[in-house]
Task: inverse folding
């Protein structure tokens, strides 16, 4: 059975949930990865309100869609981040922001992540995708000099803040899929190793594989799948295009806006960039991943009404199932 192909609603949260469901259904998506912002999904209501949960399911049913995962990147980001500042004020709800006291923001963000797990379970969903935030991302340049003790403290802070959240995930039978992404506690290969160690390799904490964040860092997204096979809980299909060859465009982006031609790379619609998709889908077959393939549209140079249906066709064409038998089985004499 082919893996379902879903649309992540995070970049569509300016539209009403029902409108996004209508669009996705019309394009031929199998379901949605529903974002917990805009009017798409409210974990504070979803954790307790039966009528609200039924309303979300009814919308999906009207358009022949299913929900395979929900995502709460924005609130997860605030669980560990330091500093908490205007960037967070701009993306957090009033309920989580409160009076803006940083520790209060972190505490309320953690509470929302617990409620997100409960909402997922009530929707019949087993995976929540999101970010963790990080108190040590600010040290990524390692200057001014950073002590090993400060780095170690960052991983301990992550474990201290996320273990109680993951206790609730365990309680309700839901897993958290952390998106390996710059600005998070795990943003590349070795920080993923360290984060898993910090959390004690507990089963509630796994990974959302989004190759767009690997390509611009010159990491191997396919090798990552093979090495972390037992931790790949979800897959987002997003692409990156590098433009580093002229000696001027930098890998760190130069504080330039998305799609500025002087940037060294850009997120780009799935299938138009440098991700080795065919090798990746074959690797997903090899590790036995049967979950959804969720298209995440991010492309400042392409209309999303063009990119989303185009990406669906691209993924459906390449992401075929593995064969039932090896090709050389036909050579057997008996």
Result:
């Amino acid at each position: 059975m082919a893996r379902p192909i879903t649309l992540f609603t995070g970049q569509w949260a300016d539209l009403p949930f029902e409108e996004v469901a209508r669009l996705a259904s019309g394009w031929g998506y199998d379901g949605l990865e529903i974002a917990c912002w805009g009017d798409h999904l409210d974990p504070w209501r979803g954790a307790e309100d039966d009528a609200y949960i039924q309303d979300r399911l009814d919308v999906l049913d009207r358009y022949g869609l299913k929900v395979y995962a929900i995502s709460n990147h924005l609130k997860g980001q605030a669980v560990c981040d330091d500093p908490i500042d205007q960037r967070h004020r701009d993306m957090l709800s009033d309920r989580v922001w409160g009076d803006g006291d940083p520790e209060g923001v972190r505490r309320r963000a953690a509470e929302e992540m617990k409620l997100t797990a409960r909402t997922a379970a009530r929707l019949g969903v087993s995976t929540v995708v999101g970010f963790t935030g990080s108190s040590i991302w600010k040290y990524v340049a390692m200057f001014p000099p950073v002590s090993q003790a400060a780095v170690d403290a960052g991983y301990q802070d992550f474990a201290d803040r996320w273990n109680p959240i993951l206790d609730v995930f365990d309680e309700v039978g839901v897993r958290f899929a952390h998106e390996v992404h710059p600005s998070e506690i795990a943003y590349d290969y070795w920080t993923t190793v360290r984060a898993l160690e910090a959390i004690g390799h507990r089963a509630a904490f796994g990974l959302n594989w989004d190759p767009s964040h690997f390509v611009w860092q010159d990491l191997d997204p396919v090798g990552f799948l093979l090495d972390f096979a037992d931790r790949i809980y979800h897959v987002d299909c997003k692409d990156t295009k590098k433009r580093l060859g002229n000696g001027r465009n930098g890998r760190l982006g130069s504080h330039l806006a998305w799609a500025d031609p002087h940037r060294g790379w850009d997120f780009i619609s799935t299938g138009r960039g440098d991700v080795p998709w065919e090798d990746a889908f074959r690797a997903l077959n090899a590790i036995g991943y049967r979950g959804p393939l969720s298209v995440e549209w991010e492309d400042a140079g392409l209309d999303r009404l063009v990119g989303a249906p185009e990406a669906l066709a691209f993924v459906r064409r390449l992401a075929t199932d593995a064969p039932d038998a090896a090709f050389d089985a036909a050579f057997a004499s008996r």
About this structure: The longest strand covers residues 66-71. Strands lie at 5-8, 31-35, 66-71, 127-130, 175-179, 205-209, 232-237, 239-242, 265-268, 293-295.
